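Please decode residue identities from the backbone states below.
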């Protein structure tokens, strides 16, 4: 069932020329909506996008203002920065590509074909590999970034969307399957699936603990977060949060987990290791999984549905300012 699709990999490599997507196609999967937020390692720049909008917004986090709009997308799905912050990668499911951008000059450097449906992305720690979900093809594409080529395409997934994480040691890739409500574990050395975890309800975003032994997942169908014991591949606890949680964001110090509750317009604060809801942060507008943290775990940036960014003081459990998008 799980195999490398060599023919597909060759086709995608052939499509990776600049002429492959010379003209933007019509939106491929507009019925599936999501947003994305990425903060650079220096915590000076944030990039925000929504799959219904053909531009990305770049914010100056120090000045608290919009810097510019980056055009040329159709349905942007996910954004990740390189470890040094010099570049960022954007997946677009309608264009069927991952694009490499230079953050200093705001230029699109290259485009690599993944196929229509390119969705969630995750980098390994050293930035040498990018893993790309394809929700339409039911596949995981492994991109060799230094060589800028498709290394392998793994098939057998069921609508893998935005939820994808790499373990801190780089050894395991966790891929969510929206259909079937399960998480597939992929051995990063062998590049093959090695296990599955089920028991979710409209599975959304996931997070992985620093030691790689715990995984946390949002269940938007049950209004809960799940705690998965990775070694035993089992859900060991659930906790009730707000309505339609999409986020399951673990802050860097590992002490608290935050759900992004789409319908409650809030974040539920879950303490660890007790795994209990201990508070609610309100004042958001349609928060989903797009939540980023400062390295010192003092603040969070949460994307609102209008692509404004709420900056949160986590100790006070309060929004301290909102970075607003341009009018209109």
């Amino acid at each position: 069932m799980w195999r490398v699709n060599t023919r597909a990999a060759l086709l995608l490599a052939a499509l990776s020329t600049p002429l492959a997507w010379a003209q933007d196609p019509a939106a491929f999967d507009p019925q599936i909506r999501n947003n994305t937020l990425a903060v650079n390692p220096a915590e000076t720049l944030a990039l925000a996008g929504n799959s219904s909008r053909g531009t990305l917004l770049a914010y100056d986090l120090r000045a608290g203002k919009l810097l510019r709009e980056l055009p040329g997308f159709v349905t942007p799905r996910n954004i990740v920065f390189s470890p040094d912050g010099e570049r960022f990668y954007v997946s677009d499911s309608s264009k069927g590509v991952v694009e490499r951008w230079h953050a200093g000059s705001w230029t699109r450097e290259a485009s690599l074909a993944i196929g229509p449906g390119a969705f969630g992305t995750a980098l390994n720690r050293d930035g040498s590999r990018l893993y790309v979900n394809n929700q339409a093809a039911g596949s995981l594409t492994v991109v060799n970034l230094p060589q800028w080529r498709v290394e392998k395409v793994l098939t057998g997934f069921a609508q893998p969307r935005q939820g994808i994480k790499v373990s801190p040691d780089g050894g395991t890739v966790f891929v969510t399957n929206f259909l079937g409500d399960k998480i597939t574990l992929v051995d990063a050395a062998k590049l093959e699936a090695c296990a599955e975890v089920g028991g979710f309800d409209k599975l959304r975003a996931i997070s992985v603990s620093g030691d790689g032994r715990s995984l946390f997942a949002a269940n938007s169908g049950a209004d809960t977060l799940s705690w998965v014991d990775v070694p035993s591949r089992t859900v060991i606890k659930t906790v009730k949060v707000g309505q339609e949680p999409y986020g399951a964001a673990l802050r860097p110090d590992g002490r608290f987990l935050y759900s992004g509750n789409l319908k409650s317009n809030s974040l539920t604060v879950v303490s660890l290791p007790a795994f209990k809801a201990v508070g609610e942060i309100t004042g958001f507008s349609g928060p989903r999984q797009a939540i980023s943290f400062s390295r010192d775990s003092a603040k969070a940036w949460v994307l609102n549905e209008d692509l404004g960014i709420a900056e949160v003081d986590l100790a006070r459990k309060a929004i301290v300012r909102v970075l607003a998008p341009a009018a209109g």
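Observation: Confidence is low (pLDDT under 50) at residues 1-24.
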